[in-house]
Amino acid sequence: MKSTLRTSAGFTLIELLIVVTILGILAIVAVPTYQSYTKRAYFSEVIQATAPFKLGIENCFQQQGGTAAALTACGTAGSNGIPAALGASGNVTSVTVGASGVITGTGLAATTGGGTYILTPTLTSNGGGNNILIWAATGTCQAQGTC
Fold this sequence. Notes:
alpha+beta, 4-stranded antiparallel beta sheet, elongated
């Protein structure tokens, strides 16, 4: 007696085309997201490079008396315990300290999109007679979505 059941010999062309289409759609969605994550990862190096400068300015501010004049005195890289300006290193193009302790970090254009990360200190009273620094982060990295 002969069986009338047909055995499967593999996938049809339509099934293979459906799988290829699904993989293509997933790739279209995944590649831009991956590129965004890698830029953010590279830019984190710029953010970390500003940390020693921030710490140096905070220490200088406290040692100089914690006043507005002290903040002005802490606006020079390479003095009062603030590290010297940083040149190109890895994914960082530069880190500089400007007037009144404003720190600017710039990323390498090829890997981070060349964005800037700017930390601006603001003198604020904590209510106990002491002044503290509050840091505001700005820069082109916010529009790029990397910081």
